[in-house]
Model the fold of this input.
Amino acid sequence: MDIKITPKKLSGRVTAPPSKSVAHRLLICAALAKGESVIKNISSSKDMQATVSCLKALGAQIELKGDTAYINGIDKPSDKATLDCFESGSTLRFLIPVACALGVRAEFAGSGRLPQRPITPYLETLPSHGAEFDYDNTMPFTVSGRLTSGRYEIRGDVSSQFITGLLLALPLCEGDSEIVITTALESKPYIDITIGAMEQFGVKVGQRDNTFIIKGGQSYKPQSLAVEGDHSQAAFFEVGNALGADIEILGLNVNSYQGDKKIIEIIREIVYNSSDRLFPFEADVSDIPDLVPILAVLASFCDGKSRIYNAGRLRIKECDRLSAMAQSLNACGGKVTETPDELIIEGVGSLKGGEVPDFNDHRIPMAMSIAAMRSDAPVIIRGAQSVAKSYPDFWEVYKSLGGEFEEI
Done:
């Protein structure tokens, strides 16, 4: 779907969509719990569909009614399973060690850029703990064997998804385990979300300095829970407000473990002053990588030069997000320079309009739809349907807030 957005001020009320990060983890914990769990406020995004279908392939019974999932946990794991992760890196990296802990011979498939996204930390650590990989640097690939407990060493400056996968799986092993983080830990809020979800299902994780301590033989207990609102998706509307919109955002947990709630702090403490001038800022995004696209939009309208740094891992997301945002904003009259690890953005008063692709990445069209508010001419987005990966009704919400666009 290609659309042409006519610049308009957004206003109205929106409920933040359910957090993907929280939902992935709650669904997996529920699938590992013997008995029935109920998880409410599940989105119909493609990433959620991927996790649900993979958990069913592993042996869970899951029935979806509206936005509620009724889950009978895995009693007898499948002997063999094909797990199609679609384009979801979370689904893939969370479930590789889970499948191994369950003793399932699992073939992992995927699409988009997922076959090229690395799983190196698992290739380096799991084979010495019972897992066997038939892997040739792409998908599909097969994992077999049964995961054993012990000491796992993993870098903290790779995706936290690998640490989450181990945290979810190791309580199922017979013996005790340690996950030793060998470098500075990035994206720690995502680890906090994981541990919080596990604790809600009765599984404990200890921590000592740079080491996570996991007792073996633990059991996940069924629960009835609701997924909280997503701060990373709400960030698009938060930035919209900073750029002149008038949007009331509902459904957010101010005490959330989600690191992306930092967008509120950035806007409140760094960007505003009493004259409503938008000041430039510097943001270390090592813990908040998903905010980079919309932070780049925010920086484009600040009065001066902003810097978004510690962002190198964004080059291996659904697309190279640093390059994608630099290209998109520059195509519309922005002034963005990229380095291997950062974006340097000189603020402009307004954009001049233009045409951008979606880069097969859901966050690029959403970010550029907010940028279009401050454009002197229409912004054309090619492939706007990619928002379905995480926010299927984004364009309906955008229109309800007064956004104006037409399919072309």
Notes: The chain has two domains: 2-17+230-407, 20-213. The first strand starts at residue 2 and ends at 6. Residues 89-102 form the longest helix (14 residues).
